[in-house]
Amino acid sequence: MLDVSDDVRAEIGDEEANRLLAGENAPGSYDCTSCRTPGNTGQERTSTVLFVGEETAVLAFAHATCIPSQVVAVSEEQVQGAVRTITGDDGGAARTVPAPSPAPMAPVPAEGPRPAPRQAVLGVTCGQVLLGETLHAALVVEPTGPIARPGSDGPGDDFLPLLIEQGFTPVNDVAYVPGTLGGWSVLLAVGQLHAILQPPTQGSAQPTSWWQAHQPLAVTEGWRTAANKNSSVIVYGAPAGSIGQQPREDLLREALEKAALHGVLVAATMPLAGT
């Protein structure tokens, strides 16, 4: 009942992957690397999660209902911390394996809007928004510059049209919860923000990263509590220069409302993967 994604198989090799699938190296019982509750590879579907650092990598295990099998790029310090967190004092179920060289550490926009040919980075800001009487965890995705449609070298910014084509909806009033975007999710692992996942691309059975953190991002306890309570995260998208880095959540809300008023804000609600 073990899931080994193509990405994980490519990193650990066919021989190791086949041994895992045959049960030779499967841990049996484990603590889920996402929700930290017990799991068992013989009783429930389990994902293999490979945390990759600069010199070492850690193969860990998670409930398939929490996160899909995937490769997660982290710093060497973070992968060593993951070893301590996952294994604890009793050895746990994680084990180190040689890391590929070089480890992939750049953000991966996958099939979503891409900064080509101009180079731009998708910046992500975490915050909470009050909608009605409920606090919602939110992410604001804003590029550092114009995003061109793949294959285009024109001067325009196609970020919002590309998001709308992916299923995001225009926001006219921030007071309302946007609709759920099927197949997408926000990935938390070991209490940190790792990625925004989109549906599998052609030829793949696993979700892919539309945005991936250069290094896992710490989130506040309040943000994590709101995300877990609602089992979802609201993801807003706005073109470069629309929102900016706001130092307080009230200012972030004002910036979102201003962007909505000017018709340059889209959003979608995404299920939370992990805790």
Q: What do you see in this structure?
A:
The chain has helices at 6-12, 14-21, 76-87, 159-166, 221-230, 249-261, and strands spanning 2-3, 29-31, 38-40, 46-52, 56-63, 70-73, 95-98, 122-131, 134-143, 169-170, 185-189, 192-198, 208-218, 232-237, 266-273. With 275 residues, it is of the alpha/beta class. It folds into 2 domains: 2-98, no CATH class; 122-273, no CATH class. Strands 8, 9, 10, 11, 12, 13, 14 and 15 form an 8-stranded mixed β-sheet that branches. Strand 2 and strand 3 form a beta hairpin. It is globular. Mean pLDDT is 78; it is low at 89-118. Residues 31-43 have a biased composition (Polar residues). Residues 99-114 have a biased composition (Pro residues).
Features:
5-stranded mixed β-sheet; 275 residues; alpha/beta; 8-stranded mixed β-sheet
Tally of individual domains: 2
- Residue share in helices? 10-25%
Largest sheet: 8 strands, mixed
- Mass-distribution shape: globular
Region (Disordered): 20-43, 87-114
Biased composition (Pro residues): 99-114
Biased composition (Polar residues): 31-43
